[in-house]
Write a structure and sequence with these properties.
Elements: E1 3-6, E2 11-14, E3 22-27, H1 38-56, E4 60-65, H2 72-81, H3 85-102, H4 118-130, E5 134-136, E6 140-143, E7 183-188, E8 203-205, H5 207-219, E9 225-229, H6 233-247, E10 254-258, E11 261-263, H7 279-285, H8 289-296, E12 304-306, H9 308-331, H10 344-354, H11 360-380, H12 385-398, H13 411-425, H14 429-441, E13 444-449, E14 452-457
Parallel strand pairs: 3-4, 3-9, 9-10, 11-12
Antiparallel strand pairs: 1-2, 5-6, 6-7, 7-8, 13-14
Helix pairs in contact: 1-8, 2-3, 5-6, 8-9, 9-11, 10-11, 10-12, 11-12, 13-14
Length: 458
């Protein structure tokens, strides 16, 4: 039985599916106003691993992940740059999915856009007003959190401990709220801002209302699992849940949140040093699998430090797995391992670990132990090698880790890599960046580590 920590009950419990063999997941997607950062990358990889593993186990997964394409930050950037807000959202969404593709993240089953569901949001807010749990001010329409008996249950805080305003803007009308934690369902638009019609006046929905409507519309009441980063637990997810309670509707049956990404303590992160400051930097400098490897070796609920040392360690671990894949391809007694049956005992242990709150750190340790056993079996001509090799590929595939072949680096590329290292040592970072660009344009992934520059084909 697959079990996950539930943020609401604070216990590891079986992930009970509403419909046997099928799982509906809602993952809060990006607000498309800028490039994706490392935290975005972590969230998408964590839930990609979850999805891939469950599908590998035979579960039919429907993953809904939205695009927030109307938001104060989008409008602020559009005004600052003198561009239509749609230009911002279209460009940033394109960059987002390009980055996710490079990370090896599968596209969601459904990708609803907030602007496609505004009418349904207006109708939901109207129902809340009719039920007497929402009210209009000169700034917009707010939910009365005092009307929700267990408000704060997901955040595990009492109403008195809630942060004032729920993250809403400080503008005219905010002082009219009945309680400091009341949050905006509908925001009246200023002249020149995007606007939709509603019974209360032209405006746009609040962020917290968007996800309630899209999740219930696509997955239905009592859907299985609601996911996101730990930063979304409050106020966003708390306020989503509050609206569903106020509507008298059943919301998510299980809540899952991944931990934060933090910088390595005391380490300056810069492009010139080969470090990364955001997801796009990482993808430009390293094999994209390195970030997945790093995250797989950290429990999804724990914070993870991203710095040169642990990225280097991930690159090294990947190189070891790739070398194993290349070696085992032709070294196993009996030839081709692609048709070999994976060792059942090895897979059973992997399943046991993954079923325990998605314990990927111990699952990865199990994979590396199986690699060692397989190498020993290959060296001794043991017939068990084929099953162990097949098990390694099965387990890696289940977490989205594709093992690649070793590609020979030509003399010209090697010379440029050596020149890049020399330039970095001389602190000639302009020359180093120019050489890196030349290598990348030639199709190489350039991995800059403390040990020197390594080249790998995408």
């Amino acid at each position: 039985m697959f079990a996950l920590y539930d943020t609401l009950t604070r216990e590891v419990k079986p992930l009970a599916m509403r419909e046997k063999g099928k799982l509906g997941i809602y993952l809060c997607g990006p607000t498309v106003y800028g490039p994706p950062h490392l935290g975005h990358g972590r969230a998408t990889i964590v839930y990609d691993v979850l999805r891939r593993y469950l599908e590998w186990r035979g579960i039919e997964v429907r993953l809904v992940s939205n695009i927030t394409d109307i938001d104060d930050r989008i409008i602020e950037r559009a005004n600052r740059e003198g561009r239509p807000w749609q230009d911002i959202t279209h460009k940033c969404e394109s960059v987002w999915f390009e980055a996710m593709g490079r990370l090896g993240v599968q596209q969601p089953t459904d990708i609803p856009h907030a602007t496609e569901y505004v009418q349904q949001m207006v109708e939901m807010i109207g129902t809340l007003v009719e039920r007497g749990v929402a009210y209009a001010t000169s700034d917009g329409v707010y939910l009365s959190v005092e009307s929700v008996p267990d408000y704060g249950a997901l955040a595990h805080q009492s109403l008195d401990e809630m942060l004032a305003g729920g993250g809403d803007r400080e503008v005219l009308g905010a002082g009219e709220k009945r309680h400091p934690a009341d949050f905006a369902l509908w925001k009246f638009s200023k002249p020149g801002e995007p606007s939709w019609q509603s019974p209360w006046g032209g405006g746009r929905p609040g962020w917290h209302s968007e996800c309630v409507v899209m999740s219930l519309e696509l997955l239905g009441d009592g859907f299985d699992l609601h996911c996101g980063g730990a930063d979304l637990r409050f106020p966003h997810h708390e306020n989503e849940r509050a609206q569903s309670v106020a509507l008298g509707r059943s919301f998510a049956r299980h809540w899952m949140h991944n931990g934060f990404v933090v910088d390595a303590e005391g380490e300056k992160m810069s492009k010139s040093l080969g470090n990364v400051t955001n997801l796009l930097d990482l993808l430009d400098h390293y094999d994209a699998r390195a970030y997945r490897m790093l995250l797989l070796q950290t429990h999804y609920r724990s914070p993870v430090k991203v710095g040169q040392d642990n990225i280097d360690a991930s690159v090294k671990a990947l190189a070891g797995l790739d070398a194993f894949a290349a070696r085992s391809r032709g070294a196993v007694v009996g030839g081709d391992t692609s048709t070999a049956m994976a060792d059942a005992e090895v897979l059973a242990r992997f399943v046991e670990l993954m079923n325990n709150d998605l314990d990927t750190p111990n699952a990865m340790a199990h994979i590396f132990d199986t690699v060692r056993r397989a190498n020993t079996a290959i060296d001794s001509g043991d017939a068990a090698a084929a099953g162990l090799v097949a098990a390694v590929h099965e387990m890696c595939g289940a977490v989205g880790l594709t093992l690649g072949a070793i590609v020979a680096v030509d003399d010209d590329a090697q010379a440029k890599a050596a020149a890049l290292d020399a330039a970095r040592a001389a602190k000639d970072f302009a020359k180093a960046d120019a050489l890196r660009n030349e290598l990348q344009n030639a199709g190489w992934i350039v991995e800059t580590t403390k040990a020197g520059t390594a080249l790998r084909r995408a």
